[in-house]
């Protein structure tokens, strides 16, 4: 029987002990700048380990950081490993989706939170009547495109896991909190350290 105690499990993944890139706080432009600086300073060979702790933030920044990871993997063939610590909420889960499920890890007692994208907006109708429908159509297009982007992200989060897209879409509207053990059992992450 394999010893799966947290101490021995951590020993199974020695690379995760010293991430090359440490991210914490809101996912925003400052985090992206910090991410790019650490990426440039990271070793250029061998697996790249990225850790994050976040309560969320800008999903487009998360997608941009994720694209950096994807492009690095596709252009160099380099292995990239994700380590979520304590909280991987909202935009943090979006960033996590850039890593294959077999390259995702969480620390003990961590949680992932996935929810639908949020929008807060006021539409002011002001001007000639013939132009007002364009304002409404533009907002509708923005909503529709945001839903498409959300679905792309949801597909990336569950790809290779035991969670179906339909299940995620059902749970996301009420903020789906997933404890580390459940995330591992669902195949959303490879393991817990």
Largest sheet: 7 strands, mixed
Shape: globular
Quickly count the helices. Answer: 7
Mean pLDDT: 93
Tell me the distance between the termini. 18 Å
Q: Residue share in helices?
A: 40-55%
Helix-strand sequence: HEHEHEHEEHHEHE
What low-confidence regions span 5 or more consecutive residues with pLDDT below 50? none
Number of strands: 7
Strand-residue proportion:
15-25%
Give the oligomeric state of the chains in this entry, treating copies of one chain as homo and distinct chains as hetero: single chain
Structural class: alpha/beta
Radius of gyration, in Å, reads 19 Å
Keywords: Hydrolase, Protease
GO molecular function, one term: peptidase activity
Organism: Sphingomonas albertensis
Protein name: ATP-dependent Clp protease proteolytic subunit
Summarize the structure.
Strands 1, 2, 3, 4, 5, 6 and 7 form a seven-stranded mixed sheet that branches. The chain has 193 residues and is α/β, with parallel strands linked by helices. This is ATP-dependent Clp protease proteolytic subunit.
Describe this structure in words.
The chain is of the alpha/beta class and 193 residues long. The protein has helices at 6-11, 29-41, 59-76, 91-96, 129-158, 165-171, 180-185, and strands at residues 21-24, 48-54, 80-89, 104-106, 111-114, 176-179, 191-192. Strands 1, 2, 3, 4, 5, 6 and 7 form a 7-stranded mixed beta sheet that branches. Strand 1, helix 2 and strand 2 form a beta-alpha-beta unit. Helix 2 packs parallel to helix 3 (59-76). The longest helix is centred in the C-terminal third of the chain and has 30 residues, at 129-158. Pfam families: CLP_protease (PF00574). InterPro entries: ClpP/crotonase-like_dom_sf (IPR029045), ClpP/TepA (IPR023562).
């Amino acid at each position: 029987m394999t010893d799966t105690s947290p101490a021995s499990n951590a020993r199974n993944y020695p690379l995760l002990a010293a991430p090359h890139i440490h991210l914490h706080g809101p996912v925003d432009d400052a985090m992206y700048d910090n991410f790019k600086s650490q990426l440039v300073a990271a070793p250029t060979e061998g697996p790249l380990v990225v850790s994050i702790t976040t309560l969320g933030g800008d999903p487009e920044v998360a997608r941009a950081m994720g694209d950096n990871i994807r492009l690095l993997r596709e252009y160099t063939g380099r292995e990239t490993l994700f380590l979520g610590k304590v909280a991987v909420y909202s935009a943090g889960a979006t960033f996590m989706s850039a890593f294959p499920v077999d390259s995702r890890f969480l620390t003990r007692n961590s949680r992932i939170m996935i929810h639908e994208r949020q929008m807060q907006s006021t539409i002011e109708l002001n001007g000639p009547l013939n132009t007002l429908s364009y304002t409404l159509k533009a907002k509708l297009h923005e909503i529709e495109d945001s839903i498409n982007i959300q679905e792309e992200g949801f597909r990336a989060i569950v790809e290779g896991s035991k969670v179906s897209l339909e299940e995620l879409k059902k749970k996301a509207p009420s903020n789906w909190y997933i404890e580390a053990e459940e995330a591992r059992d669902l195949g959303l992450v490879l393991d817990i350290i």
